[in-house]
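My current task is to audit a protein record that another person submitted. What it holds is a sequence and that sequence's fold in token form. Thanks in advance; the entry in question is below.
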Amino acid sequence: MERRKFLLSTLLALPFTAFAKFNLFMQSAATKKSKKGFIVRANESRFFGQKTSPKDTFGRCMVSSVDTENQLYISSGSNLSNREIGGPALHIHYKDDEIFYVVSGEFLIQLEDEISIIKQGDTVFIPRGTKHTFANHIKDNPGELLTIHQPISPELEKFYDVFCHNGYMNEEQMSKQFTQEELKLLFANNAFVGQPIDIEAALKTIKK
């Protein structure tokens, strides 16, 4: 009888003991990774943790891959972001999820083959491996779109950094901004798989 009680109490204690050890491990890991918090002002950008001015750019970084050990990236628009109508080609991120949050205004979003209008307060979750893109369909659009990647690779952040200072690029322009190794890594995890949204056609058929 005593042996049964001993075995039972031992078995019941195992999950709690394991959980306690796991909790201590997580606390230790968190302590090792802890960094000082920071504030990013509205007139600042911090690609790769370097504070710069986003003036006359197509976007800015608020939380960089170097801030989060490649686990999180957050960016938004800047003064040149939505002056022109258009958007990137249909593409896939193979190793990171992406989230769009509409801070203000409205935009077009494509998930696989479905195109929708997203408006202020809307959130779009894009699991890795999903064909997607977005577009600005209003010239001089005053709206703002927040972009989040989780996780984020350094080569993808560099792509966004280069884009924010140069705008959309063709293959020849990209070859001048990236090394062959960087391009190899970039396109191993990200791929263009279609055309940008046909804005005129989409607006004729879309349900607002």
The chain has a mean pLDDT of 87. The chain has five helices and ten strands.
